[in-house]
Fold each of these.
Amino acid sequence: MLTLLHTSPVHVPVFDALRDTEHPGLALRHVVDESLLTRARAEGPESVAQDIAAALAPAVAEGTTAVLCTCSTIGEVAEKTSAVLGVPVLRVDRPMAAAAAAAGRVVVVAALESTLEPTAALIRQEAAGRPVDLRMVLVEGAWERFEAGDRDAYLDMVAAAVDGVTGADVVVLAQASMADAADRTTCAIPVFSSPRPGLNAAAAAAAAI
């Protein structure tokens, strides 16, 4: 069984749909805790390390063989709980970051400022010393639309920000919630999102145990 840790319930149907098309038959369990992101933004991601482990422990006790954290802000901290939980804990954006690191000129687009540096750090890590030209774009006001439940406005604002990018080899959508914005863009630059490659990696990890 694969458990997904979310900081918003909007991710549940997204990953269920991906499972149905990409990995039919894969048993998914969803753990949703919005307070993790709230506290991580206010106090820093390390402040929720113990809470992440506590939230996931029951799922592991009931047979989870791998965990996928779908929140980019707390992804690095979540990965570290693997040693405590005894199962692989993956961050959804690592496969996307690995692909972006090979591109050269990367623009990271995020709606949350707390997501920018963790995503940039992950891309640099995946580059393994190779030079990467990284730029950051914060979509001002978009997260407020997301929190208000106005998904269309949120995605339109993200897509508009992507369409304004120039001089890049790839655009990275730093948050899983942004993925559908890629279908609303008109730019010719490849746009990378995290849900599909992240779930693929996690499904493989769950099956390997």
Amino acid sequence: MSEALFGGCQCGKIRFVAHSLLNNPHVCHCRMCQKAVGNLFAALIGAPLSDFAWTRGQPSVFRSSEFVERGFCSNCGTPLFFKHDKNKHISLSIASFDEPKKIPLKFQLGMENRLPQVDQLRELKDYGTTEDNDPDGFLAIKVSNRQHPDHETTDWPEK
């Protein structure tokens, strides 16, 4: 990877940069990851610690086991990372990157706890975009949105 990839939490209190990524973008279905992100699975990718930095704020940490810590924003709750004490990399939540679509998945693991809802996604009725489906709700969210934009900012919230 030649470009730096930036990311952070929903409220913008925590920001990071990864100057390189490992070739391990994946989803983990293990029960610990499900609970840590409050979802069907965790989507993660590693970044060598030598090529990674927190650029704004510091995440809060929960030790989910003897050797693992998981980081999140204490202000908005965004799950940000998984780190095993013995690893020389940090596994970042793919959706916390500003441009998560640039990180295609390569594999999945933790299959013993893969939930059946994952297989249902293809067959669910598609109601389209929020803008098309609920224009009034979309506009109300747009004008009152406090979410950090998907790009670097000098100050946040902007004045």
